[in-house]
User: Fold these one by one.
Assistant:
Number 1:
Amino acid sequence: MANQYNGKFAFLTLKKLAEKSVDDKLIKLKNAHDNKRNAQSQLNVLNEYYNEYQQRLNKALSVGITGSELNNFNAFITAIEQGITQQKKLLLTLEIKQKQITNELNQSQKSLNTYTTLLDKQDKKLLLQQSRLQQKLTDEFAQQQLARRMLNEY
């Protein structure tokens, strides 16, 4: 019996650790999702700047522009393009990180489910043993009562 309780205590400890791991992974996943959303938002802003400055350049070209103004437009648009490229790389990195955390969360959840199942099985086994013991004691008591009645009758 004591061995069963030690085993149960060990599984309870493992279950609590698995629950903490799931909670930690959920927090990490939320943070990763927030980071990805922010990076996507920044990419959208850069794309809007790019489109806006392309339109400004086209408008300026249609009315006339000096060589230095054209160089300034081109330099700024090139800088925005580089920013867009960097932001896309960052977004890809964040997506990969988010998938890794999701996989870790799934593993932690599997561990938690395993420990929960094992504890449930232990509880059922213990209840069955207790029920059998109770039935055995009840049967023995009934036999003793029957034996006493029979002895008293003769």
Number 2:
Amino acid sequence: MQSVSSFERDRRIFGDLATADAHALARAFEARTIAKAQHLARQGDPDDKEYILLSGKMVSLIGDAEGREVCVGFFVGPCVITPNLARTAGATSLVSLRAETDGHAASVDATVLLDLMRGFPAIEDWANAILRAELARKTSREWSLAALKAKERLEWFRSRYPDHETLFNHSQISSFLGMTPVTLSRLRNPGRK
């Protein structure tokens, strides 16, 4: 398992935070091993955590009553998972966060992070930057779904997520792009019949 001291120095997680601020923030998180198919959060369940994916791959999914799922986010560690504020309502998770590989994750109560933000202006700036980036990502995806044709959506995806076609299940990518797996396959292999 990754220790707090090793991930506090990772700029992919903590950006340009000063060492003391990164240390204070990392100390608040509890790291643990996650297994493939394990959930950090489940849609409809209580969720009061903030998460960092230290290693591995994870997807954010929204399911319906018939068991169908739509992928709404991809995560490759190390990275910060969508902030609690953007993935919950009334302390209930709006999405499921499922590991696609074995890996490591860290979590902290959202209220603990809020307290740190109040006490450390640099941590507040860090958290606000993550939230702004997540909202920009969601807006970009919504725009692509509404404004682009299927082929253009795949081009948009490739420009924003250059390695994800090889890292994630193509049925998840097709649902993320609002198309069927058959349509995605045809777009990826235009010469095949």
Number 3:
Amino acid sequence: MIPVPFRARPVALRTCHIDTPLGGVLLAASADGLAGLWFDAQRHHPDTTGWEPDPGHALLQDAAGQLQDYLAGRRTGFELPLDLSRGTPFQQAVWRALLAIPRGGTHSYGALGLALGRPAAMRAVGAAVGRNPVSVIVPCHRVIGADGSLTGYAGGLERKRALLTLEGVALPPEDRGPTARRVGNAPTARERTQEVA
């Protein structure tokens, strides 16, 4: 008989759902830190089967308060332990690189690949950015096209626009004009072609 390798049971995360000015958010925490921040209807939303709602969880309450303060302009950064262990080593490297992009700054996918020593891996970098499990706090919204245009954001381009505007990033006229969508509206044809991550 060939022994079956031992596999640890997946750790159930503790969760809470909050309302924010940018829509509903699911927060998730492990024993090691904040493991998730996903907007409602965000692409790559996780399967939460087995996760336990725990709105009184201290870390989740702290994360919720810091996020609300950030979105209201009362806070410029986050002081939270993060658990980014649920990605591949490459994804984790990309997510750590995102943490180095300062508030008010942006990087292109190519610049991010270059910073990781993988200048030809723009698509892989884009895919990893799109799978970022801790939106806003791990600032994937700060990654833009090489020409300065807004490109894909798993939470939707209107949220990306709002976050960058909050952080004082000067957006190209076509990305800040009066035709900007409201959160929750269907994307335009132009936005559908840009939402690659």
